[in-house]
Amino acid sequence: MTEWIREHQVIVWTLVAASAAVFVVSLLIMPVLVARIRPDYFAHAKRPPSRWADRHPVVRRALRAGKNLLGVVFMLGGIVMLLTPGQGLLTLLIGFLMVDFPGKYRLEKWLVRRRYVLRPINWIRRRAGRGPLQVERAPDQV
C-alpha cells in the first residue's frame, strides 16, 4: 500500500485536497441549507412539492438527473475516501441525500425525528432566526 501511495502521490494529494474541500464546504453550507428548510417540510404524509414543480417537465427532469448524477459522484468519491485519507462518511452521506429513491422522504422524516438529530437542527435554525421544524414526536422523545 505504501508503495502504491509513493507511486501515485498526485492522486493521493488530489484526493486529500478534495476531501478537505468537501469538509470545509459542508461545514459552511450545511447551516445555510438547514435554515432554508421550510418549518412544515417534515409535517406531511408525502413530500411537499419542490420549487421545481412549476418548471417545464424537461427542465425538471434535467435538474433531477443532474442532481442524481452529482449524488452518485459524491457517493463514489466517499467510497474512495473510505480507503484513502478523507471525509468518506460525510461525502457518502451528502451523496446519499442528493440521490432520489423510493422511500427517501419517509427515511428523512424518521431520521429528523430523532432527538439527537432534531436538537442540533433546531439550534442552527434558532441561531439563523428561523422557527423550529414541525415534526411528529419520535418514540425516543417520549
Task: Describe the overall structure.
The protein is mainly alpha-helical. The chain has one domain. 67% of the residues lie in helices and 0% in strands. It is globular. The chain starts with a helix and ends in a 15-residue tail after the last helix. 9% of the residues are buried. The mean pLDDT is 84.
Question: What would the keywords be for this entry?
Answer:
single chain; 142 residues; mainly alpha
Q: In terms of topology, how is this protein built?
A:
Elements lengths: L1 H6 L1 H28 L20 H27 L4 H11 L5 H10 L1 H13 L15
Helix pairs in contact: 2-6, 3-4
- The Cα radius of gyration reads 18 Å
% residues in beta strands: under 5%
| Percent of residues in helices | 55-70%
Contiguous uncertain segments of 5+ residues: none
N-end to C-end Cα span = 49 Å
How would a textbook summarize the main sheet?
A: none
Given helix and strand content, the structural type is mainly alpha
